Amino acid sequence: MEQAMERLQKVMAACGVASRRECEKYITAGRVTVNGQVVTELGTRVGPRDTITVDGTPLRRKTARRTILLYKPRGVVTTMKDPQGRRTVADLVANLPDRLYPVGRLDYQTEGLLLMTNDGELAQHLTHPSHHVNKTYEVEVRGKVPEEKLDLLRLGVPLDDGLTAPAVVYVKDVDPVKHVTKFTITIHEGRNRQVRRMCDFIGFPVKHLKRIQVGNLTLEGMKKGQYRDLTPEELEELEKGMERHE
């Protein structure tokens, strides 16, 4: 699987040349070459094998940044190693040459969308609650949940670590035969086992939990245990969010 190409100014900034905006000035001034050719276009993308020079000096490349989207199955631990010997997300991507770390976590019994990266700046942005990165979960609980209970989730509920921010909740299905309710809940906080604790509070413990979306990223076309690199467009969208909070 090929690594995503990155914007030239982003690579330059990551290597410590200057800020991204200053690097853009270097490029438009004709001070940068890629594989021996002067580059002045700000939209230029480069890969890990491209040779870059600034004012004639070769750029010392750091480890190429990489971010993947993993469909974590149930029964997998969101850690790099597990003292109990359980299967980890690191085992699912063991064939990759890059050492990637999970962004946030999904608990052992929760499946769904998990990002893994070696980009610390991106990971910090995605996990910091002040940046309001939405995460949507598909929830299944036993019984029919009264609307007033769901309204509590929409308003915010008091947990032992404080009041939760208002959530967006949509009922998908109420099955009177199986005696279950399915709904989606969107939050931007990342507290430990937050959705499960919110459902416990309203008296409807989670039977099954799946994270189906983070920001604009979804599991479309993916099977459990599969992963893929983010596209340049997806990375660009995540980076726009980072730049809005600089």
Summary, kept brief:
With 246 residues, the protein is α+β, with helices and mostly antiparallel strands. It has helices at residues 8-14, 20-28, 89-92, 120-127, 147-155, 194-201, 232-244; strands at 6-7, 32-34, 37-38, 45-46, 52-54, 57-58, 67-72, 101-102, 111-117, 135-142, 158-159, 162-163, 168-175, 180-187, 206-214, 217-218, 227-229.
Structural class: alpha+beta
Largest beta-sheet characterization: 9 strands, mixed
Low-confidence stretches: none
Classify the beta-strand content into a percent band: 25-35%
Q: What is the count of β-strands?
A: 17
* End-to-end separation: 32 Å
Query: Average pLDDT across residues?
Result: 89
The proportion of residues forming helix, as a percent range, comes to 10-25%
Give Rg in angstroms: 21 Å
Helix count from the secondary structure assignment: 7
The gross shape turns out to be elongated
Order of helices and strands: EHHEEEEEEHEEHEHEEEEHEEEH
